[in-house]
Amino acid sequence: MKKIRATITAIGKYAPERILNNYELEKMVDTSDEWIRSRTGIFERHIAAKGEATSDLASAAFEDMRKRFGIDPEEIDLIVVATITPDMFFPSTAALIQHNIGANNAFGFDISAACSGFVYALAIAAEFIENGRYKKVLVVGSDTMSTITDYTNRDTCILFGDAASVALLEPTEEDSGILDYIMKLDGKGKDYLYMAGGGSKNPATHETIDKKMHYIYQEGKAVFKFAVSKMAEVSVDLLKRNSLKGEDVGLFIPHQANKRIIDACVSRLKLKDEQVMINIDKYANTTAATIPLGIVDAYDQGRLKNGDLLLLSAFGGGFTWGSVLIRWSL
Length: 330
Ligand SMILES: CC(C)(COP(=O)(O)OP(=O)(O)OC[C@H]1O[C@@H](n2cnc3c(N)ncnc32)[C@H](O)[C@@H]1OP(=O)(O)O)[C@@H](O)C(=O)NCCC(=O)NCCS
Description:
Layout: E1 5-14, E2 18-21, H1 22-28, H2 33-40, E3 44-47, H3 54-69, E4 78-82, H4 93-101, E5 107-111, H5 117-130, E6 137-144, H6 154-157, E7 162-172, E8 177-185, E9 193-194, H7 206-210, E10 217-218, H8 220-241, E11 251-254, H9 259-269, H10 280-283, H11 290-300, E12 309-316, E13 320-327
Parallel strand pairs: 4-5, 4-6, 11-12
Antiparallel strand pairs: 1-7, 2-3, 6-7, 8-13, 9-10, 12-13
Bound molecules: coenzyme A (COA).
C-alpha cells in the first residue's frame, strides 16, 4: 500500500487594516526607525482594531482561503489552532472559529507553542491525516500580539504585530506534502520569555495589572542566541535525516522574529538569499502566524513551484522549536 501523506491544498491570510510603522513608534517610545530596521529588519506591523480578536483574524484568513480555493467549511473534519492570544481561556479559539466559519462537522482544539505554534500544529494535523482518520484538517496560526504588548516598553513593542493565516491539509498518495518533521521543547525557556499574569499562578488582580504582568516579558539577547542555534540545529538534523543538503532546499521559510536571527540561521544552513523567504519588514513578529503568512506571500509571489522542497523552521516561548520538510504541490 502506498504511504499516505498530508499535503497543503489551500491557504489564506489576513492582516488587520491598521498599520503601525516605525515613525509612529518613534513618537510613542524612545526609539528610531534606523535602530528598529537595522537591529530587527522590521518597518511596519498590522494592529487589530479594538474588539477584533484572534478568532476574528483567523475567520477572515479562512474567508480569504475560501475565496481563493472554494473550500466548503462543512467538509472540514478538524481545526487545530496555534495561538498564545486566545480570545479567552475557554471556550477554545477553535470552537469560536468553528462557529464563525460554519465548520459544522468539525471538532477542534487550541495548542500553545508560541512562535512554534504553526509548525507544531502542522505536525499534529499531519498525523491525523497520515493515519487515515481524517480527510480535511484546517491548521490555523493566529495571534493578536498587540493585546499583550506594552506600548510604553521599547524592548518589546517594536517587535510584534497581529495577523492570521490558515492552511488546509488533505491526504495524498503522491510523493508530496509533509515529508518529515522534528519538534522540540525545553521548559528552561520559561525564565526568558513569558507572560506571567492572568493564569493560575498569578490570577488577574489589581496588583498583577499594576506590575504589568499581562504583557510579554523577554530577555531579548538570551532568546536571540537560543533561537539562532536551535533553529539552525533542528533544520540541519532534519535535512541530514533525509539525506539532503542546504542546496536541495527550494525555499526556506523561517519564523520571522528578527532579520538578524534569520540571517544567522541562513549562513549556518549555507543557503543563498534567493532560497529564503523574508517578510518581517511588513508584519513584524506575528507569533503563530509568521510561517503560514510566509507560505501565502511566497505562493502569491510565485516562489513556490510544484516539486520544490520547502523547509519551515520556528523557535518560540517555552522554549519550543521545530522544522518541517514539505514537497510543495498546490
Ligand atoms: C530584542 C532585540 C531586538 C534587541 O536587540 P539587541 O541587538 O540584542 O539590542 P540590545 O538589547 O543589546 O540593546 C542595544 C542597545 O539598544 C538599546 N535599545 C533597546 N531597544 C531599543 C529600541 N527599541 N530602540 C532604540 N534603542 C534600543 C538598548 O538600551 C541598548 O543600549 P545601550 O547599548 O546604551 O545599553 C534582540 O535581542 C532580539 O530580537 N531578540 C530576540 C527576540 C525574539 O525573537 N523574541 C520572540 C521570540 S521568537
